[in-house]
Amino acid sequence: MNVRLTTIGVVLLGIAACCIGCDAHRQQQAVAAGRSTAAATSHKSSATNQHKNSAAQILSKPEVPVLCYHRIADNRKGDYTVAVATFEAHVKALADSGYHSISPAQLYAYLVYNSPLPQKPVMITFDDSREEHTAVAAPILERYGFRGVFFIMTITYNKKNYMTKAQIAQLAKRGHTIGLHSWDHTMATKYKEESDWQKQVAKPKDVLEKVAGIPVEYWAYPNGVYNHHSAEVLSRYFKLSFTLISKRDTLLPLQSVRRIIAPECSPQRLLRQMRQTFKQTN
Length: 282
Fold this sequence. Notes:
Blueprint: H1 2-48, H2 55-60, E1 66-69, E2 71-72, E3 81-82, H3 84-96, E4 100-101, H4 104-113, E5 121-127, H5 131-143, E6 149-152, H6 165-173, E7 177-180, H7 194-212, E8 218-220, H8 228-234, E9 240-242, E10 260-261, H9 267-277
Parallel strand pairs: 1-5, 1-10, 2-3, 4-5, 5-6, 6-7, 8-9
């Protein structure tokens, strides 16, 4: 009888010890899970709450030179036209002078989060969707290790002398940036009704994203012209918007990034113009 009672007691003690061990293990798991959740929440909160520069801080930062090209063609005159040889000479001079092309995404990170840029950054942009941008300009840029930013008027899809949808998609795949230049080049200062914004910005943006296969987060003002209202509305659609005039909006500097038109000129003159127009970033 005593032996039987002793045996039962041992069994009960074993069960109790096992239960205590299980409870302790569950408590350890709960604590670990809590720590893991807290760490994940802390990391997510840190990323979400990353400090952004104010408009005043953005305006105080040294500007990056941004060039704008339109027509690249021989045997054609015009303020917005450069010869093919001139364009290549410009790109070669930039490369030989130690410049590095940057994307709008890099510029945005620099302006907003103080992310570092390469030595002597420059941005090379193209307006109006011309076919020579993909046939002539992009291969020259790539030959020198550069990438460009191509602002598309979506009314020109597949039309003579303008880029096809397939060419736009190929530019994106090759590492160039695709931006929007409105539907039909109507100036943003003329958008009065919501229907204007839908026609010139919202709908073309959606279509262009499908064509390019990437988000379209950057805008170039038709004729380079903007006002505060247009900058304010465009800030809902784009991270950066680019002008062709010298004055920036003091409240919305991200929506009034300055560019200069690259003229038919010597590489030396272009470099001087860049230095005179933009503050140096390095």
